[in-house]
Amino acid sequence: MDVQDLQQQSSEGESDSQGGRSRQGLCDSDISADEEDLIIRLHKLLGDRWALIAGRLPWRTTEEIEKYWKMRSQEIDQSSD
Predict the structure, then answer these.
(1) What angle do CA 15, 17, 18 make, to 5 degrees?
(2) What 8-state DSSP symbol labels residue 22?
(3) Is the pLDDT of residue 81 over 90?
(4) Domain span at residue 40?
(5) pLDDT in tens, 16-55
(6) Domain annotation covers residue 6
(7) Residue 6 neighbours by CB under 8 Å, 6+ apart
(8) Cα dist from 59 to 13, 77, 81, whole Å
(9) Does residue 14 sit within a domain?
(10) Where in the numbering of this chain does the Myb-like domain appear (predicted)?
(11) Count of domains in the chain?
(12) Residue 4 lies inside a defined structural domain of this protein
């Protein structure tokens, strides 16, 4: 699955009254396996440039991507202890 497929899935989501995608109920667990894979690959390529990574996932904010990455990193650190 590539970025265009993910964008199409996103555009099929509910819209709010202003025509944008509803953000209600979005949390880190809502990040799909395909999104996670893309975030990991882009992080390897771009490092901590969250705005650039979020630019490839236009339905995600920079803050969501960074928060997800930090939570993921903490989980990995805890599991290695």
Answers:
(1) 90
(2) P
(3) no
(4) 30-81
(5) 333 334 344 445 558 899 999 999 999 999 999 999 999 9
(6) no
(7) 32, 34, 35, 38, 57, 59
(8) 10, 28, 34
(9) no
(10) 23-70
(11) 1
(12) no
- The DSSP letter of residue 2 is -
* Locus of tokens 């989501």: 13
Q: pTM value?
A: 0.63
If one compares 2 and 16, the residue with the highest pLDDT of the two is: 2
Per the domain annotation, does 72 fall within a domain?
A: yes
| CB-facing half-sphere around the CA of 29: CA atoms within 13 A | 1
pLDDT band at 2 (very low <50, low <70, confident <90, very high): low
Report the amino acid identity of residue 49: R
CATH code for the domain of 66: 1.10.10.60
Residue 69 has pLDDT above 90, yes or no: yes
